[in-house]
Design goal:
It comes from Aristaeella hokkaidonensis. The chain is α/β, with parallel strands linked by helices and about 400 residues long. It has eleven helices and 14 strands. Helix 5 runs parallel beside helix 6 and helix 10 packs parallel to helix 11. The two termini are about 45 Å apart.
Length: about 400
């Protein structure tokens, strides 16, 4: 008995020492805040450098965008704006700043986001064969080798299996040239295996972006098979209604028939672990001008108006007046977790304007939902929509709201 006890104790000690505590229960990672940083921000009047981001309140930056291009008989990833991102002659190039921030904030993650709405035109062709996927994967490895501060990759193919024609000459559209259902999963599997073999198992992060519509997008990808190969599935739970439609609606509702909750439940039904699912928060609006005054402003016939950033929306919220007075009014549907603003002042140029957006109230509901359902966190499109002059109030609320 003493000999058996000795053997068991020795085995336990070896397990703790040589397997790095693998015998112990794995600690669940807390949900985090992931922001998208678009490289075209460098040309904006309200531009904020990488160094100026609120690094103390974010967990991950997804740098947007790099793209897939045909190259030398195969495929490669390249920046959509090399001058803004990597040009050594650019004194404010993003990647030089990322290198500095990675050293200063070693616990933060920095990923390249590949694709986007207008730059997903070569994904299906690239994923078609093992050889074409292999060239893409090698380019990914070479890029991560060239920029060792990068934590990994975010695949933003919008969307596998969803045929879409280009909207204009700057848009590649999304052609489907093969079995995207199968090839998307194979690409992620082979990429995950290559990352683990090249850098060590789990050393580099692999995430994917996904549309929030089950029927139009999510059901076209095999999440039951692909989820083991990715660290996060980032649900873009915004643009669920917008100015391309002829009735007002909610573009980032939390609950209801068309909502973040619907998309989350679909992924859970496919066997995706809750901690791998993130939902999205937009720091921009969609809007319409209603065609006539309506008692029910949500769902009213309307025509498109320009989108706004949270910075501008914040000023409208502050100018909102009580019911019975003409002007801007705040609306919130607690059953859907959705916010909106509308104007009923006939003397104002904004008369009958309707804005669907993320308010502090709807954001609080999302943060509670994430924690209550054990989700992996929140993605934000995009970081510079926040009110920078007011010290990033929305990013701050996100950070505080996800704390244990």
């Amino acid at each position: 008995m003493k000999k058996l006890l000795c053997v068991l104790l020795t085995a336990a000690l070896l397990c703790a020492l040589f397997l790095g505590g693998a015998c112990a229960e794995t600690k669940k990672e807390e949900p985090g805040v992931t922001v998208y940083f678009p490289n075209w921000n460098i040309y904006s009047d309200s531009r904020q450098d990488v160094n100026g981001l609120p690094w103390d309140r974010i967990d991950c930056v997804n740098h947007a965008f790099w793209e897939v291009i045909p190259q030398d008989g195969g495929f490669a990833i390249v920046s959509t704006d090399p001058w803004a991102d990597t040009d050594p002659d650019n004194p404010v190039a993003h990647f030089a700043q990322y290198a500095e921030c990675a050293e200063k904030y070693p616990d933060k993650q920095i990923l390249i986001s590949i694709g986007g709405w207008t730059d997903s035109g070569h994904f299906s062709e690239m994923a078609l064969t093992k050889e074409s996927r292999g060239s893409f994967i090698q380019s990914c490895l070479d890029t991560l080798d060239a920029y060792p501060f990068l934590s990994g990759l975010d695949i933003d193919w919008e969307y596998p299996g969803v045929e879409r024609e280009p909207e204009d000459e700057s848009d590649e559209g999304c052609p489907v040239v093969g079995d995207d259902w199968t090839n998307y999963t194979l690409m992620l599997k082979e990429l995950r295996e290559a990352l683990d073999e090249h850098f060590g198992e789990g050393k580099k992060i692999l995430t994917v972006c996904a549309g929030a519509s089950v029927g139009w997008s999510l059901s076209k990808q095999d999440y039951a098979s692909l989820h083991p190969y990715v660290d996060k599935i980032n649900l873009m739970t915004y643009d669920m209604a917008g100015s391309w439609e002829e009735n007002t609606g909610h573009h980032t509702a939390l609950l209801g028939e068309v909502s973040a909750d619907t998309a989350v439940k679909y992924l859970l039904e496919q066997g995706v672990p809750a901690e791998k699912i993130t939902i999205g928060s937009p720091l921009y609006s969609h809007g319409w001008k209603m065609r006539e005054a309506a008692e029910e402003t949500v769902g009213a016939p309307a025509d498109a108006i320009d989108d706004m950033t949270w910075h501008d929306i914040m000023a409208i919220e502050q100018a909102a007046v009580p019911e019975g007075m003409p002007g801007w009014h705040k609306g919130y549907d607690a059953e859907k977790g959705a916010a909106w603003l509308w104007n009923d002042n006939p003397e104002a140029p904004e008369y009958l304007d309707f804005i669907t957006y993320e308010s502090t109230e709807s954001l609080a509901a999302k943060l509670d939902y994430i924690k209550a359902n054990g989700l992996g966190g929140l993605i934000i499109w995009e970081v510079h929509g926040d009110s920078i002059d007011n010290d990033w109030p929305m990013i701050t609320q996100m950070h505080k709201g996800l704390q244990p």
